[in-house]
Amino acid sequence: MRHIGFSGGALIVELGTVNDVSLFFECLKLFVEWKYPKQNWHLLTDRLYKRYLRLEDVEVAKEQMMQVRQLFMELPSSAIEWDQTILADPEKSKLNSKLLMLSDVFSRFFSAFLECLESAEVMYEEFKFYPGYQYEPLKVVITDIPLYLDDKHRSLEQYDALGPDDPPFWLR
Q: Which of 32, 56, 134, 148 has a C-alpha 20 to 30 A away from that of 126?
């Protein structure tokens, strides 16, 4: 099973398997959109899930992710129906469903998000005046080599070209 993580700036942080990252985004969509139906979650449910976070979206995305974390602190891990066959196989999932709250189960996701976002911002501030330097945004990537290299060298235009029904590259 492939491993997936966040990448931003000079940092890559592995989060877990495809199943783990898919479950995180399913929970985000299910619980957050249910709790805050009038709020636009496009930055996390589309931009981060499928594409990348643009520099101008960083602050709002950070606020939204902290809002998700806060909500997950209120939800017990039993709020989701765990597939025991997936949990029993460490190749299929690295999550610990026995932790009390969803925020505990996905704690690595929240810290990795902030770490990679900070790396992207620091790298941009440090190198933005260098000829040819481009912002290295936060995005979801395959962390296994050599597949990571495909993600690393994939142009932002390819991400932007994804249609509404296209799966993200990390799910292909």
A: 148
Distances in whole angstroms, Cα of residue 147 to Cα of each of 16, 38, 76, 133, 154: 15, 38, 35, 23, 11
**How would you classify residue 16: left for phi > 0, otherwise alpha for psi between -120 and 50, otherwise beta?**
left
Among all chains, which residue has been given the structure tokens 């492939």? 2
Put simply, whether the predicted model's pTM sits higher than 0.70 gets the answer: yes
Smallest CA-to-CA distance from 40 within 22, 67, 14, 16 is with 67
Q: What are the structure tokens assigned to 143, written together?
A: 């962390």
CB-based contacts of 128: which residues, under 8 Å, 6+ apart?
A: 135
Kindly give, in sequence order, each residue whose CB lies less than 8 Å from that of residue 155, ignoring residues fewer than 6 positions away. Answer: none
pLDDT in tens, 25-79: 999 999 998 899 999 999 999 999 999 999 999 999 999 999 999 999 999 999 9
For residues 140 and 4, the answer to whether their CB atoms sit within 8 Å is yes
Give whole-number Cα distances, 78 to 29, 34, 96, 102, in Å. Answer: 17, 17, 12, 8
Walk across the sheet containing 3-8 and list its strands. Answer: 11-17, 3-8, 139-142
Q: Strand pairing partners for 139? A: 7
DSSP 55: G
